[in-house]
């Protein structure tokens, strides 16, 4: 009985210690994809680690591409089925980024937007 109480106290102390630690420091961005629009949960995020979640709210498969204006690197999110969700954490530097769906002619039909990454 004493051992059980000691284990319970140790477990509670461990949970308290874990809960007191700060959460990871990164911005979060939601990207909703429908036919034929991309909607951002916010227009800008702070530079550094950014957790981006693509949520396919449409009826077709969609993906997501992200590239800084004037940049050469393109970040890619895989094809996502209707109702599906994909999350990636990226390290973004300040600037403006174009986001688009690269499936067929979706970009030309309006599935593109701009994100500002601020200092």
Give an overview in words.
The protein is 16% helix and 50% strand. It is an alpha+beta fold. It has one domain: Sandwich (Immunoglobulin-like). The strands form two sheets. A five-stranded mixed β-sheet has the order 3-9-8-5-6, with no helix packed on it. A four-stranded mixed β-sheet has the order 2-1-4-7, with no helix packed on it. It is globular, with a radius of gyration of 20 Å. It starts with a helix and ends with a strand. The relative contact order is 0.22. The N terminus is likely disordered.
Helix content: 10-25%
How many extended strands? 9
SSE order, as H and E?
HEEEEEEEEE
Number of helices: 1
Mean model confidence by pLDDT = 87
Radius of gyration: 20 Å
N/C terminus separation: 56 Å
CATH superfamily: Cupredoxins -  blue copper proteins
The CATH architecture: Sandwich
Question: What class do helices, strands and sheet pairing give?
Answer: alpha+beta
What fraction strand? over 45%
